[in-house]
């Protein structure tokens, strides 16, 4: 191969820029030309690209978001649209496409590979919910952002003796809630992977209050329950004073943590090395202590759910 394309797609995640930089500079180092596609798969349909060189990706390793911009392109689910995008890539003489994004982006990459374009996915999503990897770029930064926010909210919760309910992102996965809950010493976390039992939550909170706990933190994953419903339920069924913070997009922004910027570079290297070795249609990921390139078809065998132990432990340690 002599020329690759790179795009970011789906929700932005801290570390995506570091991955763009890593892909571009490592590919150039190996003698390849690099074309950036603007706004994800949409850019393939609108024909928006930019040639990347070492300098275009300078000064971005520490920046949140993605300089290539991103989109959720629903149109791309259609077969003729995918074919059109593949033809456009061929017209640009792009031999392989590196996609930085989450599982929706991986489905898009897979579709392009069915149209004859070699693809490679670098996992970039705050949700940490992708098959074929135990780690997605952005997750660590987000957990730290959530932790910082919870620590601030706790000051008010404890001063006013309140129950702080904090709703966090994560789509259908509870990784963000669980890790932020663990690190902040939350009293309870609600995650989609476990049954949401609000009566039990209320008992748990009331019991803690009885034994002298003046305030509590409850982290709710958006995929488990709506924060407003949790607050309403606690209000109705206990004498406690709950209030809600929905963290929202603050979780997706900001400079990547050391871990995210580092993983971005390592994943980028693996993606390019694999392409150069003739291995493609894979998702790059951390499996155990190794960075692997796993074919899309095998990725479901490498599915890493949240830890049951950690879920139990948060509740044991939280009161
Ligand atoms: O996938 C990342 C994520 O932030 C999820 O946690 C969340 O459910 C979703 O994206 C929100 O999507 P949007 O960018 O459309 O608001």
Automatic annotation (TrEMBL):
<dbReference type="InterPro" id="IPR012003">
    <property type="entry name" value="ATP_PFK_prok-type"/>
</dbReference>
<comment type="pathway">
    <text>Carbohydrate degradation; glycolysis; D-glyceraldehyde 3-phosphate and glycerone phosphate from D-glucose: step 3/4.</text>
</comment>
<feature type="binding site">
    <location>
        <position position="11"/>
    </location>
    <ligand>
        <name>ATP</name>
    </ligand>
</feature>
<keyword id="KW-0021">Allosteric enzyme</keyword>
<dbReference type="GO" id="GO:0003872">
    <property type="term" value="F:6-phosphofructokinase activity"/>
</dbReference>
<feature type="active site" description="Proton acceptor">
    <location>
        <position position="127"/>
    </location>
</feature>
<feature type="binding site" description="in other chain">
    <location>
        <begin position="169"/>
        <end position="171"/>
    </location>
    <ligand>
        <name>substrate</name>
    </ligand>
</feature>
<feature type="binding site">
    <location>
        <position position="162"/>
    </location>
    <ligand>
        <name>substrate</name>
    </ligand>
</feature>
<feature type="binding site" description="in other chain">
    <location>
        <position position="154"/>
    </location>
    <ligand>
        <name>ADP</name>
    </ligand>
</feature>
<dbReference type="GO" id="GO:0070095">
    <property type="term" value="F:fructose-6-phosphate binding"/>
</dbReference>
<dbReference type="InterPro" id="IPR022953">
    <property type="entry name" value="ATP_PFK"/>
</dbReference>
<protein>
    <recommendedName>
        <fullName>ATP-dependent 6-phosphofructokinase</fullName>
        <ecNumber>2.7.1.11</ecNumber>
    </recommendedName>
</protein>
<feature type="binding site" description="in other chain">
    <location>
        <begin position="185"/>
        <end position="187"/>
    </location>
    <ligand>
        <name>ADP</name>
    </ligand>
</feature>
<feature type="binding site" description="in other chain">
    <location>
        <begin position="125"/>
        <end position="127"/>
    </location>
    <ligand>
        <name>substrate</name>
    </ligand>
</feature>
<dbReference type="GO" id="GO:0046872">
    <property type="term" value="F:metal ion binding"/>
</dbReference>
<feature type="binding site" description="in other chain">
    <location>
        <position position="222"/>
    </location>
    <ligand>
        <name>substrate</name>
    </ligand>
</feature>
<comment type="subunit">
    <text>Homotetramer.</text>
</comment>
<dbReference type="GO" id="GO:0030388">
    <property type="term" value="P:fructose 1,6-bisphosphate metabolic process"/>
</dbReference>
<dbReference type="InterPro" id="IPR000023">
    <property type="entry name" value="Phosphofructokinase_dom"/>
</dbReference>
<feature type="binding site">
    <location>
        <begin position="102"/>
        <end position="105"/>
    </location>
    <ligand>
        <name>ATP</name>
    </ligand>
</feature>
<feature type="domain" description="Phosphofructokinase">
    <location>
        <begin position="3"/>
        <end position="274"/>
    </location>
</feature>
<keyword id="KW-0963">Cytoplasm</keyword>
<keyword id="KW-0547">Nucleotide-binding</keyword>
<dbReference type="InterPro" id="IPR035966">
    <property type="entry name" value="PKF_sf"/>
</dbReference>
<dbReference type="InterPro" id="IPR012828">
    <property type="entry name" value="PFKA_ATP_prok"/>
</dbReference>
<dbReference type="Pfam" id="PF00365">
    <property type="entry name" value="PFK"/>
</dbReference>
<feature type="binding site" description="in other chain">
    <location>
        <begin position="249"/>
        <end position="252"/>
    </location>
    <ligand>
        <name>substrate</name>
    </ligand>
</feature>
<comment type="function">
    <text>Catalyzes the phosphorylation of D-fructose 6-phosphate to fructose 1,6-bisphosphate by ATP, the first committing step of glycolysis.</text>
</comment>
<keyword id="KW-0808">Transferase</keyword>
<feature type="binding site">
    <location>
        <position position="103"/>
    </location>
    <ligand>
        <name>Mg(2+)</name>
    </ligand>
</feature>
<dbReference type="GO" id="GO:0005524">
    <property type="term" value="F:ATP binding"/>
</dbReference>
<keyword id="KW-0324">Glycolysis</keyword>
<dbReference type="GO" id="GO:0005945">
    <property type="term" value="C:6-phosphofructokinase complex"/>
</dbReference>
<keyword id="KW-0479">Metal-binding</keyword>
<feature type="binding site">
    <location>
        <begin position="21"/>
        <end position="25"/>
    </location>
    <ligand>
        <name>ADP</name>
    </ligand>
</feature>
<comment type="similarity">
    <text>Belongs to the phosphofructokinase type A (PFKA) family. ATP-dependent PFK group I subfamily. Prokaryotic clade 'B1' sub-subfamily.</text>
</comment>
<dbReference type="GO" id="GO:0016208">
    <property type="term" value="F:AMP binding"/>
</dbReference>
<keyword id="KW-0067">ATP-binding</keyword>
<keyword id="KW-0418">Kinase</keyword>
<dbReference type="GO" id="GO:0061621">
    <property type="term" value="P:canonical glycolysis"/>
</dbReference>
<keyword id="KW-0460">Magnesium</keyword>
<dbReference type="GO" id="GO:0048029">
    <property type="term" value="F:monosaccharide binding"/>
</dbReference>
